[in-house]
Design brief:
348 residues; alpha/beta; 7-stranded mixed beta sheet; 5-stranded mixed beta sheet; globular
Amino acid sequence: MAAPVTSAKPVTETHTETQATVQKLTIGKALNAGLRAAMEADDKVIMMGEDVGKLGGVFRITDGLQKDFGEHRVLDTPLAESGIIGTAVGLAVRGFRPVCEIQFEGFIFPGFDQISSQLAKLHYRTQGEVKVPVVIRVPFGGGIGAVEHHSESPESLFSHIAGLRVVSCSNPVDAYWMIQQAIRCDDPVLFFEPKRLYHSGALKAPVDTTATPDPLFASRTVRQGTAATVVAYGPSVPVCLDAASAAAEEGRSLEVIDLRTLSPLDLEPVFESVRRTGRLIAVSEAQSESSITSEIAARVQQECFYSLEAPVLRVTGYDTPYPPAKLEEHYLPDLDRVLHAVDRALEW
């Protein structure tokens, strides 16, 4: 069985010095700690959003920040996403580094014009004179049994807009470091957070606050394998790791790559892997039509054509609006659907 690959250093939790720098955190707690570290490091970093202050956000990701940093740095805003983004653009132009929270991904569209027409273009149309270091935190994806507009995966829309950076974390270590790196980035960053993983005890992991993090805009191999490559991001990564563990019990070695960055895509590790395995399965909760998995399939076919032993296969959400909660288990990619795609690729 291939062993998982991790960027985290081995942890000895009984060591006194290690205890001071290493905490075992969920993704939600890691994001909170990362936001806190960013605010401590730079007083130009401010939080904005609906109920991010006293309530700590609908998922409690900003819990305690207003109490510790004050209402002038953690701002409860009106229910107006266009106003939140527009205000953040103005603050960024004046030298601040605003971090906006969108409560649920389905609520981002009232601010779409500000994001696509202003935020994405100011740096370019001023020939680099004006920087807009805005981070927009977007809880996304399904699996929480929510109502309409609360379980969508619109990341492909924003990845298509030139001038925006788009990233997504899948584990506590990345959550802690990537949010800080995004805040330090001088480009606007959409930070997609897998909300159903926020408080998952199964994903709780040691986070070393003194470690050297991976670069922000880079993908990473999280499990080595030889039979087929599986690529995913955000909430689909744990599903793929579970599929790889299940496949290993049948003697099939799957390599799993966490994209981490959706725009720009870092596909060199994917190309290198596919040249070895000859097979690729791309997994995402988003619809398959005109999606990130579509781009991956096209680029891999272009770069690895003579290495492929089977067509690139995709396991995605369906090309319909997100269904009612009672049907979402049939909509979301799961272990069985991933393993079925692996079977098809290996049987080709």
